[in-house]
Inverse folding.
């Protein structure tokens, strides 16, 4: 995929020339809702979801091949012991999911949703971003390219989520660098751990320097992580193929925020799967799209993504099959 001398330039070009929303297709959905009368008015947000699907796929709303994609990455910063889990726990989470024991496995298995889990070099964590860039530019760009390839294959709805000890801390560092303000404003941990994480983020941003954090791609490689990079690539690929995207979890929101910082319209095809129940994450979700589709407060990777995909699939089926009430 990479063709330019500078690894991030291809992504910049893609983000400058992205497919636009199909306003004509959206109008067709709104017209049909009006024609359905009371039956259409009674659809509520189901009608909005159907319109969103059509806006980006440019065809009548339908979901035949949904993909729930989970990306797993490890973070060098986790070695500082800033959470309750150890780096080795990420691999255990992946194995648990692959064995069918995770909540997302149950939802996908019961509802015929495609589920893929991607191991992003778990045995090679990114660097501790308080003393070094998390990874180099070529490695970051290659991970984004991998994320692009991961969503290829004829899917018509992609839901993104992630595993990764240290992932929420890296996401908070990314969002703080992008949005500004205090690290405290963007931490999703609580209590003493939150205070320690805020200190680490402040130290990391000071180490890298504000001048090096003006470019969102530099923010990604300096304080981000592989799962964030892969999901950013997946979001770009989905947009180029006109595939709607659901975002699940703070790292997924951080990936979307990075792209939005490059191009304000870059994530218009995305919707947040569910409210996370954490003020920082929910505030960021509000900056990215409309209201989350669900309000679950679920933190297990992929659960909100899979349940939101079922909702979207159901909304398409309802819209396609509903008829106006018979007149007397």
């Amino acid at each position: 995929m990479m063709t330019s001398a500078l690894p991030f330039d291809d992504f910049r070009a893609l983000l400058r020339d992205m497919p636009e929303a199909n306003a004509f297709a959206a109008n067709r959905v709104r017209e049909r809702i009006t024609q359905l009368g009371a039956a259409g008015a009674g659809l509520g947000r189901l009608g909005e979801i159907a319109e969103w699907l059509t806006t980006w796929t440019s065809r009548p709303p339908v979901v035949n091949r949904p993909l729930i994609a989970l990306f797993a990455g490890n973070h060098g910063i986790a070695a500082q012991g800033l959470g309750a889990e150890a780096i080795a726990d990420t691999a255990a989470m992946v194995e648990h999911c692959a064995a069918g024991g995770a909540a997302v496995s149950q939802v996908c298995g019961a509802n015929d949703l495609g589920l893929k889990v991607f191991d992003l070099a778990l045995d090679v964590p990114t660097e501790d971003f308080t003393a070094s860039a998390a990874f180099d530019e070529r490695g970051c760009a290659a991970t984004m390219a991998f994320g692009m390839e991961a969503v290829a294959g004829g899917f018509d709805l992609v839901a993104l989520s992630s595993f990764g000890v240290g992932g929420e801390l890296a996401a908070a560092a990314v969002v703080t660098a992008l949005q500004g303000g205090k690290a405290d404003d963007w931490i999703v941990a609580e209590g003493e751990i939150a205070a320690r994480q805020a200190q680490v983020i402040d130290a990391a941003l000071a180490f890298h320097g504000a001048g090096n954090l003006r470019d969102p791609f530099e923010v990604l490689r300096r304080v981000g992580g592989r799962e964030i990079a892969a999901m950013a690539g997946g979001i770009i690929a989905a947009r180029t193929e006109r595939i709607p995207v659901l975002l699940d979890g703070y790292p997924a929101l951080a990936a979307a925020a990075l792209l939005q910082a490059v191009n304000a319209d870059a994530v218009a095809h995305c919707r947040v799967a569910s409210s996370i129940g954490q003020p920082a994450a929910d505030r960021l979700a509000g900056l990215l799209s409309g209201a989350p589709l669900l309000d679950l407060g679920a933190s297990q990777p992929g659960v909100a993504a899979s349940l939101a995909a079922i909702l979207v699939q159901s909304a398409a089926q309802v819209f396609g099959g509903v008829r106006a009430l018979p007149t007397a």
